[in-house]
Amino acid sequence: MRQHVNPLSRFFQLPLELPPPAELFSTPALPLHLDIGCARGRFLLALAQQQPGVNHLGVEIRRPLVSAAEADRQALGLSNLHYLFCNANVSLEAWLEALTKEQLELVSIQFPDPWFKKKHHKRRVLQPALLLAIATALKPGKRLFLQSDVPAVIEPMVALTEASGCFTRPSADPRPWRADNPLPVPTERETYVISQGLPVYRVLYERNEEPRPELQLLEQWMEAADKQTDNPLDPEAPMA
User: Fold this and answer.
1) pLDDT digits (tens, 9 = 90+) for 71-119
2) How far apart are CA 80 and CA 142, in angstroms?
3) How many whole angstroms separate alpha carbon 24 and alpha carbon 34?
4) What does the pLDDT look like over 47-60, one tens digit per residue?
5) Which of 15, 40, 126, 167 is the most exposed place for a label (fewest CB within 10 A)?
């Protein structure tokens, strides 16, 4: 059972100043993997042990999950892993802007909470401002990985990402969905879905050389595309 919180409530709209990598990791210059919406954090806990040469940061909007994940991390003494409580759409942009060049290696958004009603679409985790902040922090060739078991969740993320023009799918990856997970550790949700014989929808992107569009244009595109009830969030729809 997913424990939803409303990211648009007043409490979650308060911006938080997140500590920089130098305060989070023993070797802050290592390549960084940012997992947005890490939930209980067990996926990152296993991944950080497999990849000691990478720093891993999980951010999550449900504070009790962050507290439990941090307790696990501290018990194992992992210095290349940290969890932070925040609303990604409120507090991550400034943090991403402060990263040094080439630091961010990978951003993953996996099985985010579904918000199906049109009036709730602004609660979705991948909003235009966050996507553009990610695009700015990722240098060409660095990766953005999206996955979900719900088509109505991943399709808008894919459409928004492709409408930005900042990301390209590797030519060898099958369409419309990648068959395998590029990460060596599955999330708990992924393991459960696969055990039920159900599909997982995955897309891997690489940052390309294109400049990021103006935020207002991408917001206008999303608003217009979101109104197309017959073909919502069409990635071919022009932004202006």
Assistant:
1) 999 999 999 999 999 999 999 999 999 998 899 999 999 999 764 445 4
2) 19
3) 13
4) 999 999 999 999 99
5) 15
What is the token pair recorded at 209?
A: 């050389």
Distance between alpha carbon 154 and the CA centroid of its chain, in Å?
Answer: 11
- Please indicate, yes or no, whether the overall pTM of this predicted structure exceeds 0.90: no
Which tokens in the block code for residue 19? 């500590």
DSSP line for 113-160: PP--SGGGGGGSS--HHHHHHHHHHSPTT-EEEEEES-HHHHHHHHHH
Cis peptide before 19 (omega within 30 of 0): no
Active site residues: 113
Q: What are phi and psi of 180, to 5 degrees?
A: -125, 165
213: CB partners within 8 A, 6+ apart? 132, 164, 165, 166, 239
Torsion of CA 26, 23, 103, 212, to 10 degrees: 160
Supply 175's token pair.
């369409």
